[in-house]
Amino acid sequence: MAFKEIDLNMGPQHPSTHGVLRLKLAVDNEVVLRVEPVIGYLHRGMEKLWESLTYTQVVPLTDRLDYIASLSNNLGYVLAAEKLAGIDVPRRARWIRIVLVELQRLASHLAWLGFMANDIGAMSVLLYGFEARETVLDLFEEYCGARLTIHGIRIGGVPRDIDAAFAVRVRKVLDGIPKWLGDIRALLDENRIWKQRTVGVGRIDAADAVAYGLTGPSLRASGVDWDMRKALPYSSYDEFDFEVPLGRNGDVYDRYLVRLEEINQSIRIVRQALDGLPEGEFSAKVPRVLKVAPGEVFHTIEAPKGVLGFYIKSNGTDKPERVKMKSPSFINLQSLEHMCKGNLFSDVVGILGSLDIVLGEIDK
Amino acid sequence: MTPFVADVLIPAGKIVAVILYPMVMVVVMIWLERRVVALIQGRLGPNRVGFQGIAQPVADALKLFFKEDIRQRQADAFLFNIAPILVMFSSLLAFCFVPLGEPIRIGTYTLTLWIAESPVGLLIILGLSSVSVFGVIFGGWASNSKYPLMGALRSVVQVLSYEIPLGLTVLTVAFVARSMDLVEIVRRQESAGVWYGFLMPVSFVVFWISAVAETNRAPFDLPEAESELVAGYHTEYSGMKFAFFYMAEYAHMVLVSSLVVLLFFGGWLPPLGGVKALAFLHAVPGFVWYLVKIMFFLYLYVWIRATFPRYRFDSLIRLVWKWLIPLSLLNFLAIALVRFLL
Amino acid sequence: MSRLKRFLKMAFLVDILQGLGVTLRLYFSRKVTVEYPEEVQEPAERFRGILRLHRDEKGEPLCIACKACQRACGTNCFDIEGKREDGAKIMRPTKFDWKLDRCSFCGFCVEVCPTSAIRFSREFRLTGTEKEGLFFRLPDMYLAGEDLQTHLCAGCRRPR
Fold it and tell me: How far is Cα A131 from Cα C43, in angstroms, rounded to an integer?
């Protein structure tokens, strides 16, 4: 029986595609030739739905896009809407937003870490990553009442102010995260099996990464220094002191290291934000019924998965005429084929895990 | 003692014991694996079915028993049905040659704690555990689907490759003990005063790694991993047939642990048994020590599974052919040389 | 020297033993499992559980049927009608239909309510077996605890 060029199907129901994603693989004796992702299994018609809702009513629905990091989606849309409507957000609100969004980045990366390690076989790391993530989700629950679809950023600011007691609890959580990271790194970083599965696997060099439109930590792992928080700072990020970790080889191992380092940087940013939180209002005064003058805007932010962009076109009413969302996972998924070519098909799962995609974002 | 009792009843009792012993250990293993993996991961594991969940294996067995036996259009129905039996059979049969302790005197009768003692017991056990490879091939072939076949082939390559360092390290023990009889090997360790695991640590480590790979356990469980594409040779099996594969894997684990304990850790000998001050340790029956040691290795199996990622197939094969086989060859030569000189 | 060190680390399985050490330590650590349903983890104070209507200290309902919640809701969960009795100072709802299966728990209705009549509770056990259990009429909006669970299960009478 000759095994030349078989078509394999990683169906929409699979424990390791992060959501309902179908991958059609063409494999030659274990070496991957072609990967064709088939998406759309989670399409809910979000962009069309948003056209029938007011600007404020859209915000809770953006939670459901990248459901692992919902505050980032909130921020992306809200910043675009505020830019269009010409709303000035008070400085304190901007800093509180940064606290929330960087905590969310931390939580998103911890979830990613758990999933990727589980796909490669280290199943305990999944539980450790999630135990660490739960401490952060407890903070969100305390802040605004929900753990996953958080809706903690509103047009004009944030829904509630944070007090000193909350800051104390945030600091306690931030102190606990490095212990978990230390354990996970001791389990994985130098482990020979982990390195054999990840070093040199799923390589993409800088030029190809930029050509494919890859963004986020996957791009930075290939050595390209592009982080929206530094390149086109938004919402007071220019007032903070943090580094953007870069990789060298653009393989799975580098993506893993880059995201681990980003967790440390997020902790750093949150500490700075809590230490220097300015006085002021936690929200601008926004009319109950927000009517926006006609115009269009496109605004991008650095979500944990990559560059998230919202394009909003308004026609003077209180409902947007068209909202288009540029999701990072959708663009990142394109480069999956390039990364998988030439690797064994056991690696496809690891490479997909390192790309960190969320189907909610891809399918909208 | 009438001839009937001595020649019929006692051997029949031993046969029943030999079938029950691995089955009981399998039941214990199912529970142990789920609890220990859970506790390592920071959660509790099964703790509702019976006290601390010890009846969980019963629940699992009942579930598998009542599952529908799916029959698809097989390539070969006979092979499909016989595959799980072969795998189970080879593991159980090997237990006939595994001694559990020194013979016990009851009155005038000496009860031997094994079914058969053979001067080449070691070889027979190794050979029998290789018969399970047939079951794997038959299962993969008869499933009439390319994914189980690929999984079966990978599993076969893995098992066959890892038998080489397994055999070589076992040879070093046979060399030092000057015998392939398992009872003799344990007695030699007693008279030598030191267990072979401490005398030949390289042999032990290579043997252990090969044993974990032989039993298709993590981190060498790519052929049957759930998150990979190919789910292994037992994809198409359901119900009791799948249960057989499952139980045979655990029985094989117990067999391999027994071998490790017999060859490298003194079998039924108490630790530090030669020390006069600790002579009270001999009061504990050898069988208990044996069980304690086997349980340690079963724990080690589960502990390793919960900790490490999975080897990719080519890394696995590269590991054995480039590292373990040369290492075990060199180890064998070194030990042979030392034995020759001393 | 560092090549030798790396070789020795590889030969003596240092990274393997390090990993095993981590999991051994965590084997003995405190487990975070909450054994539901015997133990129930109380959610935070501001947890967005199911919406409930509230009464004031005198027992009078706070809802004045202004329909602000209906307008604020993005998923059309509410269907409210109100009437002012002759001689009364405020309107009262005559119909207050709310669909649990449409609610996205966003909180807009709670934020816009002028009298804080509708608020989140901390009840998160919201499963039922019939669709009628997910539909709340005016008297159902005041249910809590066991009565709420009975309503959600739509009276299926299976032991919980």
Answer: 17
For residue B330, pLDDT beyond 80: yes
Q: Which single residue is written with the structure tokens 């606990």?
A: A176
Instruction: Find the mean pLDDT for residues A53-76.
Output: 91
- Mean pLDDT for the stretch of residues B159-176: 90
CA B321 to chain centre: 22
B272 pLDDT band, cuts 50/70/90, is: confident
Gap from B303 CA to chain C (nearest CA, Å): 7
- Kindly indicate the confidence band of residue C156, based on its pLDDT and cuts at 50, 70 and 90: low
Q: Is B42 on the interface with C (CB under 8 A)?
A: yes
Classify strands A6-10 and A22-28 as parallel, antiparallel or unpaired.
Answer: antiparallel
Residue C5 domain-assigned (yes or no): no
The count of domains in chain C is: 1
For chain C, say whether B307 makes contact (Cβ under 8 Å).
yes
Distant-in-sequence, close-in-space partners of B140: CB < 8 Å, separation ≥ 6: B148, B149, B150, B151, B152, B153, B155, B233
Crossing angle of the two packed helices A252-275 and A164-188, in degrees rounded to 10: 160
Question: Do A104 and A304 form a contact (C-beta atoms < 8 A)?
Answer: yes
Strands (E), chain A: 6-10, 22-28, 31-38, 295-303, 306-314, 322-326
Domains in chain B, number? 1
Searching chain A, which residue's CA lies closest to the CA of residue B153? A1
What are B48-86's pLDDT values in tens digits?
888 888 888 888 888 888 888 777 776 678 888 888 888
On whether the CB atoms of residues B308 and B201 are closer than 8 A, the answer is: no
Q: What is the pLDDT of residue B142?
A: 81
What domains can you pick out in chain A, each with its CATH number? 43-363 (1.10.645.10)
Query: Domain span at residue B158?
Result: 57-98+119-341
How does the average pLDDT of chain B come out, rounded?
A: 84
Please report residues of B whose CB lies closer than 8 A to that of C20. 303-304, 307
pLDDT of B70: 75
Could you list the residue range(s) of the whole structural domain that residue C99 is in? Answer: 51-152
Any domain includes C110: yes
Q: How far apart are CA B214 and CA B315, in angstroms?
A: 15
Of C72, C67, C77, give the one whose Cα is nearest residue C98.
C77
Share of chain A above pLDDT 70, in %: 99
Q: Look at residue B246 and tell me if it is in a domain.
A: yes
Indicate whether C80 belongs to any domain: yes
In angstroms, the CA B302 to CA B99 distance is 25
pLDDT score for C1: 66
Phi-psi region of A200 (alpha: psi -120 to 50; beta: other; left: phi over 0): left
Please say whether the beta carbons of A348 and A32 come within 8 A: yes
- Give yes or no for B303 touching C (CB within 8 A): yes
Banded pLDDT at A98 (limits 50, 70, 90): very high
User: Do the beta carbons of residue A153 and residue A100 sit within 8 Å?
Assistant: yes
Contact with chain C for residue A183, Cβ under 8 A: yes
Cβ separation of A117 and B41 shorter than 8 Å? Answer: no
Ramachandran angles phi, psi of B226, nearest 5°: -80, -30
pLDDT tens across C27-53, in order? 888 888 888 878 888 888 889 989 999
Note whether residue C45 is domain-resident: no
pLDDT at A109: 94
Tell me how far apart the terminal alpha carbons of chain B are, to the nearest angstrom.
Answer: 47
Helix A91-120 / helix A70-85 crossing angle, nearest 10 deg: 150
